[in-house]
Amino acid sequence: MLNHVIESQQFTPEILLELFKRADELRVKTDLCLIGKILATLFYEPSTRTRLSFDSAMHKLGGRVISTENAKEFSSAIKGESLVDTIRIVSSYCDCIVLRHYDTGAALEASKVSKVPIINAGDGKGQHPTQALLDVYTIYREFERLENLKIAMVGDLASGRTVRSLCYLLGKFPGNKIIFVSPENLEMSDDIKEYLKKKNVEFVEETVLDKVLPDINIVYMTRIQKERISLQDYKKAKGKYVINQLNFQLIKKNSRIMHPLPHVEEIDLPIDVEQIDKRVAYFRQAENGLYIRMALLDLILNKENCFEESY
Ligand code: CP
What we know:
By secondary structure, the protein is an alpha/beta fold. The protein is built from 13 helices and eleven strands. The longest helix is centred in the C-terminal third of the chain and has 21 residues, at 282-302.
């Protein structure tokens, strides 16, 4: 069975802790455990962090990378080639494919025809499981636990694949409470709410961010995804939820602001505050992505049947 990474639910607490341990090791001591392996990064949507951190992770582990950063235009997709045909071909050139695609479900479809593991690097409004891995790794490093946390998820929760993937992982640990803060036109979808109910994870929906900020451990901000919603919905939501110098004061000293990045106007803090204040965790979060992706590549390329007992 190939070690595809399609959705965050497939990671058990045990696998997560194994990945965190390996990421911590690789942070301080590189291991050339992927010499001779080739990773293909196939991106049909823009990316800075995910693509470059996967590229860097592979290089640091001694492997090599083949890549197309704008597969929508610069691969044979532009000539009409289907994704499944592209995957059939590319999977015969490499040992693993990291795929970002604009269609929800694209990674799952790719996994059905691929000869090598597929890692979902974001599929439309679906999931972004490796972002969720780096998110929980960051939470674990900042709080030394993944349970009994109050997390506010803020912004465009309807289009946000990162918050969807993160909910699935937080649902695996007891005592967490999630506060969804979104414009009413961009609320978290019912499938996630159903999952949380099934897992007995408490959640509430709020509309006033400042009311929530004094009482949370983590505020997980997200961008309004202009590219995935109507102009009307965008105009209604833009600028509604912003962390600025004023409401930043409402956040407790030992709480954290996280964000999958890129951030635009929803974070309006001076650069020196972003640089110095411990509450700003999103740059550490992005850096953690490198180490957790190194650990993930090592796991799925060097161990068989990693996810056999998942779900
Ligand atoms: N968080 C994230 O996926 O960033 P990129 O779009 O830059 O990869």
